[in-house]
Amino acid sequence: xxxxxxxxxxxxxxxxxxxxxxxxxxxxxxxxxxxxxxxxxxxxxxxxxxxxxxxxxxxxxxxxxxxxxxxxxxxxxxxxxxxxxxxxxxxxxxxxxxxxxxxxxxxxxxxxxxxxxxxxxxxxxxxxxxxxxxxxxxxxxxxxxxxxxxxxxxxxxxxxxxxxxxxxxxxxxxxxxxxxxxxxxxxxxxxxxxxxxxxxxxxxxxxxxxxxxxxxxxxxxxxxxxxxxxxxxxxxxxxxxxxxxxxxxxxxxxxxxxxxxxxxxxxxxxxxxxxxxxxxxxxxxxxxxxxxxxxxxxxxxxxxxxxxxxxxxxxxxxxxxxxxxxxxxxxxxxxxxxxxxxxxxxxxxxxxxxxxxxxxxxxxxxxxxxxxxxxxxxxxxxxxxxxxxxxxxxxxxxxxxxxxxxxxxxxxxxxxxxxxxxxxxxxxxxxxxxxxxxxxxxxxxxxxxxxxxxxxxxxxxxxxxxxxxxxxxxxxxxxxxxxxxxxxxxxxxxxxxxxxxxxxxxxxxxxxxxxxxxxxxxxxxxxxxxxxxxxxxxxxxxxxxxxxxxxxxxxxxxxxxxxxxxxxxxxxxxxxxxxxxxxxxxxxxxxxxxxxxxxxxxxxxxxxxxxxxxxxxxxxxxxxxxxxxxxxxxxxxxxxx
Length: 641
What we know:
It contains 25 helices and 18 strands.
């Protein structure tokens, strides 16, 4: 068996296996003090599910004791600043612990109580001297009130709402501009006092309605570089009265109750960790007892539970509706089931209560092979890494087998009750997007088109004739504001065909638009089967007559279609226009981008630097040999039209 692939804690050089069951406090303490490596896996699971301050504080204390018995590995440490209108102790301790169990070691800066406005506006403040990578801004909700009368005109109240939101966003923008760091801005918890009664919902002058409106404006107006930590939602989820703690405020200026601090710490650590990891791309599903109740091979279409005629059937149908919503925002769905293929397909084609149909799936494997093997086949078909997969099944044995043989796949045990499926799947927070692009909304259709291309390619023996039959058309153009969300998404998520894997935020990419020393372009591709969307990004810098390719990435879905040839033609064309004598390519090896290790040499580049961490290649512009392609380019970058 293959060992489980983990690595939950930054402080460990070697990672343990995930625990099969949660352990109690005494067992966990015994593991920690004995130096048992299994402690770290149990600690991570317990920490990520902790909901009370007492439990999380116990786990944090135990981790610090266990570190005394474990050798720390030297790793880059995230520099995190926490500033705001509250006392940020012990919130910062909880955040530090939760980041550690997610594999993120950090150094922290704590702002002074209720001094965050001055800390941001004074560019000589200790905040800037700390040089943070990320700042968490936690404004005080009680300071956000309408200063006028309950009977003031609605227009004046709305102006005050917008002004309050813009004040906070302006602080965030100022900090970003001066520091270059990212910002996570908390919105405001709503007050629990009864006060105005039902009248609170009839005027923006009420504290409740005013803060709700400010929160809405924050979310709608926040630029891409400002991420919102939804404290309002966390408070509502915990229960507003349970989240508040008047005594904690008066005694030590706390945000809320001790347990509510855990909610905020969990959310903040998740947001920080997800900036590096990104959402999963593929949800792979079992069929029997997962999409419907019963076993199709035994019960037949008429005998399975699905639909509004029973509580369980209704729950399965609701789960399918949720899965459809995931698909519509860009999550790829796939089937991996031990089943007779024809019988499985029949349900999707004929059952009147099925919400999901075959066209909603990017891959469909219903056979008697091990699910771990089928998962690998799905990954190969979709040209995606298994670390972007989530596998959901009702059977704990299947989850365990996949964990053993495909450890990169995240398993979700749905359990026996379909009413809990949506909650169990959401609990892992695997599919939460930071942005949604047009390409996301059409992703499943793009993969269906890709399957048709693959089927056509398998039926021909003449590759040039196949490429010509695709009738490919490409648009190559310089970066523009409309494409920035998709460009940022590709840069953040592309791993395989990515020469340097340099990550840039949307704000950083936008900054390149005004840089005269940079040339940045994208390529879109369509053919007779459909539109593949924006599939390649190139960022290059002109340095002393050399055209340096800083970033080159491409969707693996378009490999072997001469896209890389057209990209290289464009690189040398733009380099010549820019007056460059040479083009320099950089390759930074990672565990995932080995498929592009030889691409520059394949185009005639000569290796000029060779180390384990960095390889450089150069080719004179005059020596580049253009390769003809079957792609018709309808527009080129930096050309009018």
